[in-house]
Design goal:
The structure is a single chain. By secondary structure, the protein is α+β, with helices and mostly antiparallel strands. About 30% of the residues lie in helices and about 25% in strands. Strands 1, 8, 9, 10, 11, 12, 13, 16, 17, 18 and 19 form an eleven-stranded mixed β-sheet that branches. The chain has a four-stranded antiparallel β-sheet with strand order 4-5-7-6, covered by helices on one side. The protein has a two-stranded antiparallel sheet with strand order 2-3. It is globular.
């Protein structure tokens, strides 16, 4: 277990990496008398392309726009991941393909322009032209504007349209300001970007914010991917708050009265997909044995130090789609050994590994290191599968896409936000539908395809929930994907920070209410 004095002794030299986080390197703007500056360190900073900056119509940059209070969406999620109006006042479902959205009055963009139906129309049309994921999810056919209303018609039935508009790509920006200069993105949020690099965004208060008093004058969000460096910076008060601390470091702050922690269960799931092109994994008994061999309860309680929730299916309990309503065989290594024997795998030469036709059963576990949980899951899986006689070689690489493309893997473990729109359809469309983007194992099930078609056309929330449960159960019954755990998000902050809270969506962080006592 990490001790505070060990961290300080071993990481003192790393503090130099933080540069302007503290000390005498403060930017002139930070030196202004009376300015209240909030310094936030995170491993989740997502502006990797400086040229795209905060443009939500580029890749996943909308996460940065939304997380750090520059942009806002027409609807947002509450703590139960149900959509509620934000920039919108209300909406009316005209028919199965048409929704009329009424906008709040007197909202203005950071450049002083008013939020109108025409402004929303221009923004959404630009989004459709430039964002493939949004275009595929929203399926917009026609947008019309009239004063403070905007009417959206989709190409097909769209039961989850309002949910999809909560996605960060849906941040409404003023297209009159354009997107060519990323610092001139004009949103409706409490902050405006003053400067931006691939590792830092500097924000200033939006003096004309529509949603109430903005407590902070400036915010500096810094990308600090090294967990030990992040830990040291928070300990040394070079940061006011941090996200993504190593689990081994959290106890240092849990037991320290100078810090507080805000936690929330999220829909980010850590899962492992089976490759149906691997001969051994074409046998359901082998896939089932793999799933039953890994103790996910111990994984979350020991390796994640209680900072996760064992998963049964893709969704956490609070969403109502499982795991309490689903059934799985669970951890049973003895039964897993029996299944391998039934599939013809036995240890015939006494080397500790089962074999068939003279060859050991060896599986290639592919994952990446950008999420600290994944190497830990790989380590656990390797040990647990060895116990039932399966030899596992781990390839933890951030060049994992190269191996996926070449088919050089048998089990691929990844992290994924299963319900970014608070609706279950997105996950199944991307992971288990034939030819879908994340169905890398080429899983195919007629039952799943039929259920997906029903879900896509069903508007009734209760029936959508029932269909989602059936889909999850089918994937579990086929042992196509092993679900290990859900993320427990932790925001650690100095005791003088208020209004900064973790949210199940993983979207909302910096807002007008965030404050710090000097």
């Amino acid at each position: 277990m990490l001790k505070k004095n060990v961290i300080v002794a071993s990481l003192l030299s790393m503090s130099m990496l933080l540069g302007g986080c503290g000390g005498g390197d403060k930017a002139p703007e930070q030196q202004a008398a009376g300015n209240k500056v909030f310094r936030y360190g995170t491993v989740a900073y997502s502006t990797s392309n400086e040229n795209a900056g905060l443009n939500p119509h580029f890749s996943y940059h909308g996460w940065t726009t939304l997380r750090y209070g520059v942009g806002e969406t027409l609807f947002r999620f509450n703590d139960q991941m149900q959509p509620e109006p934000w920039l919108a006042e209300k909406y009316e479902q005209i028919d199965e393909k048409t929704v009329k959205i009424y906008l709040k009055d007197k909202i203005i963009f950071s450049n002083g322009h008013k939020l109108t139906g025409a402004a929303v129309k221009a923004c959404l049309e630009d989004l459709m032209k430039n964002h493939k994921r949004a275009a595929a999810a929203l399926q917009l056919e026609e947008i019309t504007a009239d004063g403070q209303t905007v009417t959206i018609k989709t190409k097909e039935k769209s039961p989850a349209l309002i949910n999809a508009l909560c996605d960060p790509y849906g941040c409404i920006i003023d297209m009159e300001a354009g997107t060519a200069d990323n610092l001139k993105i004009s949103g409706t949020g409490p902050f405006i970007a003053a400067s931006l690099t691939p590792t830092e965004v500097h924000l200033k208060k939006n003096p004309s914010y529509w949603g109430g008093e903005v407590k902070l004058d400036e915010v500096i969000v810094r990308s600090i991917p090294d967990g030990d460096t992040l830990t040291l910076a928070l300990q040394n008060k070079e940061l006011d708050a941090a996200q993504g601390l190593p689990y081994a470091s959290l106890k240092l702050f849990q037991e320290n009265k100078d810090f507080s922690i805000s936690s929330a269960a999220t829909s980010r799931v850590f899962q492992a997909a089976m490759n149906y092109e691997t001969p051994a994994l074409q046998d359901d008994k082998v896939r089932q044995a793999v799933s039953m061999a890994i103790d996910k309860n111990k994984f979350t309680s020991v390796l994640l130090r209680g900072n996760g929730y064992p998963a049964v299916g893709p969704f956490p309990t609070f969403m109502g789609y499982g795991p309490d309503k689903l059934k799985e065989a669970g951890y049973d290594p003895a039964k897993a050994k029996e299944l391998l024997a039934e599939a013809g795998y036995r240890d015939t030469n006494g080397d500790g590994y089962v074999d068939k036709d003279g060859r050991n059963l060896e599986l290639r576990w592919l994952t990446y290191t950008l999420r600290q949980e994944l190497p830990l899951l790989a380590e656990a899986a390797q040990s647990y599968l060895k116990d039932i006689g399966i030899k596992v070689s781990v390839n933890a690489t951030d060049s994992y896409n190269d191996f996926l493309k070449k088919g050089e893997w048998d089990i691929f473990a990844m992290a994924f936000v299963a319900a970014p729109t608070g609706d279950p359809e997105y996950y199944f469309n991307t992971h288990v539908a034939p030819e879908s983007a994340y169905n890398r194992g080429h899983y195919s099930s007629p039952a799943v395809t039929a259920l997906l078609d029903e879900l896509h056309h069903e508007f009734d929330p209760k029936k959508r929930r029932e269909l989602a449960l059936k889909l999850s159960q089918q994937v579990l019954d086929d042992h196509a994907i092993f679900y290990a755990s859900h993320l427990k998000m932790n925001l650690v902050m100095q005791k003088n920070v208020s209004g900064f809270a973790a949210h199940p969506s993983d979207y909302y962080e910096i807002n007008a209410a965030v404050d710090k006592k000097e």
